[in-house]
Write a structure and sequence with these properties.
The complex is a heterodimer of chains A (about 300) and B (about 300).
Chain A lengths: L3 H15 L8 H27 L7 H16 L5 H23 L4 H20 L10 E2 L15 H24 L1 H11 L1 H6 L4 H27 L1 E2 L6 H14 L4 H21 L4 H14 L3 H8 L1
Chain B lengths: L2 H32 L6 H19 L2 H22 L9 H23 L15 E5 L2 E4 H23 L1 H11 L1 H6 L4 H23 L9 H16 L4 H26 L5 H26 L10
Antiparallel strand pairs in B: 1-2
Helix pairs in contact in B: 1-5, 1-6, 1-8, 1-9, 1-10, 2-3, 2-4, 2-8, 2-9, 3-8, 5-6, 6-8, 9-10, 10-11
The chains are: A mainly alpha (about 300), B mainly alpha (about 300).
Chain lengths: ~300, ~300
């Protein structure tokens, strides 16, 4: 018997796999779906922090941006080979997460929110001062990342399935982590830190590990985002992007990574639909966001559970 | 880099710090009393600047514009409190962050829809144009000095209100234990409305004063908001005294860093590399300072007991 949340996630992956063949094969839909899947990866990693460890990070966009800028830096040095680019993106984001997390995790609650926000801004302003890589204007990538010299990712379908495969892998990883002893320690320290300590678990290293893992997944999604857009700008690291990611997680619900998956897909599709409707779509999106936070306490996942 | 330039930058830094303090004061009070995290506070600053610029243009006078903008920002803050914020007081911080983020989206876009995306101008009042000779060869704009003076006066007034009046006493009591205050028969919700409205007005005041020297544009409050957060984190959340000190530190570090760091880098690197790394380092500087302070004092310089 498959659990309901696993079934939901698998159904979404199946739908995404079929999408190109049932009328969503045009380049516009594929671009949109790729974007949705990439943000879903980032949202799943943020879900590990928010839902698993109770760490509300308002600087997660920095991880995506650092992954994307790793692609830029290597591209500038004429390196586009995946086995260099992907580990560099993941590694750079993980390293940033380790350095900033080591300080941020010493605090908790609102302090943590504000400090992650501040570190996110630090990364944002640093990238916008990098004149070598376009500064504020961003950097256009003329080549996508290559696999052993082959331009596999230039093919839209291949890119679609690469994103889907990695998304599924991230979902599985976070699902497995949350179910493991590691995940139970995280949740125990979130529920009651004093008790977790009393039974012998120091929360700090577990939280830091979760923060670094989430950063690494964020970095991976950044590498993909750079490839999807073939363009990287400091706007990827803007704090508004971090708030968007938090909203995806909350919109989907904190019940598990399948919630973040649904939240991110819903977010990107709603955004796209509203942006088509009117130039001032944020006037509608803002109140929608407020109402969702107010009424949808368990997110979409909570709704499906009840329904 | 000579002393004159350094002095100018220090004055600029102090003046920026004062503006930051006016925004951060409301933020830290609202958080201290009601445990409410309000990302939309920077929007109040933007609204203040827009209202000030519009009203000044309508009435043809800076002073009338300023005078009218204050009660309007106050009313606007109370309206937001009534429509959105009060429904989120007893929710977790994450919900508060997202709800107030929604408010930012709406108001930034709303301002863009009403006033257009292009920056607005607000003229400096007539008798504050020109400059004052501070020392040989240093002419400093009078208006910037006026901001400094007005900000310091407001800070003093705020200190008096919080430390020496009955409402201030209730605010301090609310910050250290709101449920107890409520049990003693004080209407905490109403107290919070007062604090909230006052904080919104302070931010609006900062916005009007900044309008003639900065460009008035959609989203102008967002970057200031982040710095205001840095200020209250460094100062200790809920502490006015901490916010004041931290605002000056942040203002000085931010302003001096941008002019001094690239010059310092030139000692080690060739000019173009120095400009690059200098600019990058200068923008990181304030966050490095914050991280350093928090590494030693995780709850800020003046932690409030809670």
């Amino acid at each position: 018997m498959i659990r309901r949340d696993t079934a939901i996630a698998l159904a979404i992956f199946a739908a995404l796999a079929l999408a190109p063949f049932i009328g969503f094969g045009q380049s516009h839909s594929l671009t949109l779906l790729a974007r949705a899947m990439i943000f879903a990866m980032a949202a799943i990693s943020l879900m590990l922090l928010v839902g698993g460890a109770g760490l509300v990070s308002l600087g997660h966009a920095a991880m995506i941006g650092i992954g994307a800028y790793a692609v830029v830096v290597l591209d500038h040095a004429r390196i586009t080979e995946a086995w260099m680019v992907v580990p560099a993106g993941i590694g750079a984001a993980a390293l940033f997460a380790l350095a900033t997390g080591a300080i941020a995790i010493r605090t908790s609650g609102v302090h943590f929110i504000m400090i992650t926000l501040a570190f996110g801004q630090m990364a944002f302003f640093t990238t916008s001062s990098l004149a070598l890589y376009g500064g504020d204007d961003g950097y256009t990538l003329y080549n996508r990342t290559e696999f052993f010299g082959s331009r596999l990712l230039e093919d839209r379908l291949a890119f679609h399935f690469t994103c889907l495969g990695l998304l599924a892998a991230c979902w599985f990883l976070v699902q497995a982590l949350l179910g493991s002893r590691f995940g139970r320690v995280l949740r125990a320290s979130r529920e009651n830190e004093t008790r977790a300590r009393a039974v012998g678990f120091e929360p700090y290293p577990y939280r830091l590990a979760a923060y670094v893992i989430a950063g690494a997944i964020g970095g991976l999604s950044g590498v993909l985002l750079a490839n999807a857009a073939e363009f990287v700008a400091p706007a990827y690291l803007a704090w508004q992007r971090s708030a968007d990611l938090l909203f995806m997680v909350i919109l989907g619900g904190l019940a598990g990574p399948h919630g973040a998956l649904m939240g991110a897909l819903a977010f990107v599709l709603i955004e796209e639909w509203l942006a088509k409707l009117t130039e001032h779509w944020r006037l509608i999106f803002g109140p929608l966001l407020i109402l969702c936070v107010f009424f949808l306490r368990g997110g979409i996942a909570g709704m499906l559970k009840r329904g | 880099l000579n002393t004159t330039l350094l002095l100018v930058q220090m004055l600029n830094g102090l003046q920026f710090g004062i503006l930051l303090f006016l925004v951060a004061a409301g933020l830290t009070l609202v958080f201290g009393v009601m445990d409410f995290i309000n990302l939309a506070h920077g929007v109040q600053y933007m609204i203040g600047a827009y209202l000030g610029a519009t009203l000044a243009a309508l009435t043809g006078s800076f002073w009338l514009g300023l005078l009218l903008a204050l009660p309007t920002t106050l009313a606007f803050g109370l309206l937001l409190e009534f429509l959105v914020f009060r429904h989120f007081y007893d929710r977790d911080h994450l919900s508060q962050v997202l709800a107030t983020f929604g408010v930012i989206l709406v108001l930034n876009q709303g301002v863009k829809a009403v006033f257009g995306a292009a920056p607005m101008q607000m003229p400096v009042p007539e008798w504050l144009t020109g400059g004052v000779v501070i020392m040989e060869g240093l002419l400093y704009p009078t208006y910037r000095l006026a901001i400094l003076a007005a900000g310091l006066a407001t800070a003093a007034l705020l200190w008096f209100l919080v430390e020496r009046t009955k409402v201030g006493m209730l605010v301090r009591a609310g910050a250290s234990n709101a449920p107890m205050l409520s049990a003693l028969g004080v209407d905490v919700r109403r107290l919070f409305m007062v604090v909230f409205g006052f904080g919104a007005m302070l931010a609006g005041f900062a916005g009007v004063m900044a309008a003639p020297i900065l460009s008035v544009e959609p989203g102008m409050g967002d970057n200031l908001l982040i710095l205001a957060f840095v200020v209250i984190v460094i100062g200790g959340i809920g502490s006015i005294r901490g916010a004041f000190l931290a605002a000056l530190i942040v203002g000085l570090v931010e302003t001096l860093g941008r002019s001094v760091v690239p010059d310092l880098m030139r000692l080690f690197l060739d000019p173009s590399a120095a400009r690059q790394t200098g600019a990058a380092l200068a923008s990181m500087l304030i966050y490095i300072v914050m991280a350093a302070i928090l590494a030693f004092r995780p709850s800020g310089l003046f932690p409030t007991a809670r």
